[in-house]
From TrEMBL:
One of its GO terms (molecular function) is NAD+ poly-ADP-ribosyltransferase activity. Gene3D superfamilies: 3.90.228.10. Its EC number is 2.4.2.-. This is Poly [ADP-ribose] polymerase. It comes from the Eukaryota. Keywords: Glycosyltransferase, NAD, Transferase. It holds the Pfam family PARP. Residues 31-251 form the PARP catalytic domain. It is an enzyme of class 2 (transferase). GO terms for cellular component: nucleus. InterPro entries: ARTD-AVP, Poly(ADP-ribose)pol_cat_dom.
Length: 251
């Protein structure tokens, strides 16, 4: 479908796919004929700036590709949810610091601090990566018996995200650096099994769960429109390719 002019203004200015072709004189609207999303190579400079995200996996690890995910429908849904949380929660929110956001990234990615928007990691099996790019993260397939129930799980530690990846025949693994709007989070150090939404505090359902447990931080949202797969990072893991220990094939 064609984008209306007002919708076009809501897309990130850095997008360069065929959703929008920009000319010197005007924006030309392009219909989505071939795909719901586009994967766009980022610059070598951007890739180099993100190399540190996978360095925590140790030697024999190299960030080989970074693609920006440009999905018009998912973005507009995410942006609307972020705006709603900013409007309804903004005055109560205390911004959360995460290890996956360096100071320069706040401006580069135009993170909305007032909505507690952050960048976090989500590992995936290779076969599921394109599905996430197309349809977004799915909370409906989450298992209730997981540590914090049937939510969508993110991490600020590459080792945790890597546990949910698998290795393809070329030794490549995939993880998303995702926008996540945490809003007003429920902070805990306890498990919250069987939850389908964040806990209720003083009659209000909160927006997310931020859990510190066993020296790791887990970030969980239960609304798929509170997260957007910003970048798909592809990296070579020599350790996993050679069969060293690690969980395989979890989505």
């Amino acid at each position: 479908s064609l984008l209306r002019g007002d919708e076009l203004k809501l897309l990130p200015s850095c997008w360069s796919s065929e959703f929008v072709r920009r000319s010197n004189s005007a924006d030309v609207f392009i219909s989505r004929e071939l795909a719901n999303f586009y994967l766009v190579d980022v610059s070598d400079e951007c890739k180099d700036e993100l190399e540190w995200l996978v360095e925590g996996l140790g030697g024999m690890t190299e960030l080989t590709m970074v693609h920006r995910v440009e999905n018009q429908e998912l973005w507009l849904q995410y942006r609307h949810t972020r705006s709603t949380i900013l409007r309804t929660r903004g005055e109560y929110i205390q911004p959360i610091e995460v290890k996956t956001v360096k100071e320069w990234m706040r401006g580069e990615y135009e993170l909305v601090e007032g909505a507690n928007e952050v960048l976090l990691l989500h590992g995936t099996a290779g076969k599921a990566a394109s599905l996430i790019c197309d349809q977004g993260f799915e909370s409906r397939i989450g298992k209730l018996d997981k540590k914090y129930g049937a939510g969508i799980y993110f991490y600020d530690d590459i080792k945790k995200a890597d546990e949910d990846c698998d290795t393809d025949s070329f030794g490549l693994r995939h993880v998303f650096l995702s926008r996540v709007t945490l809003g007003l989070p429920y902070l805990t150090s306890q498990h919250l099994r069987n939850h389908k939404k964040p806990p209720t505090v003083q009659g209000e359902v909160l927006d997310s769960v931020v859990a510190s447990f066993e020296k790791n931080n887990d970030y969980v949202v239960y609304n798929q429109h509170q997260c957007y797969p910003e970048l798909l990072l592809t990296y070579f893991s020599g350790r996993k390719y050679c069969g060293f220990s690690g969980k395989e094939g979890q989505e």
